[in-house]
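Justification of computing resources. Each target in the renewal requires a structure prediction run like the one illustrated here; the chain below, 205 residues long, is used simply to show the kind of job we budget for.
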Amino acid sequence: MKQKDPTLPPGQVLTQKFPVLHVGGVPEIDPKTYRLGFTGLVENRFELSYDELRALPSTEYRGDIHCVTRWSKKATYWRGTLFRTLVERANPAPEVTHVIQVADNDYTTNLPLSAMLDDDVLVAWEYDGQPIEPIHGGPVRMLVPKRYFWKSAKWLKRIVFSDHDEPGFWETRGYNNDADPWKEERYADLPRWMDRINGLGKPRP
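Resulting structure tokens:
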């Protein structure tokens, strides 16, 4: 019997490839006109162009990523701006509890602000030493490596700071709200969410 890899979360299988999964088609986003907005309950609302984002102090993440569809990719290499740095610039109000990522294709996903302040959460613009390809979320995507990868929105365009939780695209279709791979938090309570979406069945990532 093949022994389980203790370095992988439960139920995951190692891949050498980088599978492509997303909602809708790949949008055409021109880095020259790209803008990333920071809004919601903050003292300072602001936007950054692609060049402005890349000009900020950058950091790297070298480590594993995990998809809810059961693949894990080890030793990935990303570079971007530490999300915590941008939070400090926005200066959220004391009542802010959650961060909502808004992306192209009407995609959103949600996490507590506390989770987004980890020192490995990046607004990423480079993968494996090169600009992120559009199929993998370029020019700019979020990277939250401690959560299943749907919590790392591709084609990121806005960050909203909120005083309440707002489940996003997959969360409202049955995916777990917290998405911790090591706890195998893949799906929510099936009868409850299946009733809510009128029997559409198990969602596909």
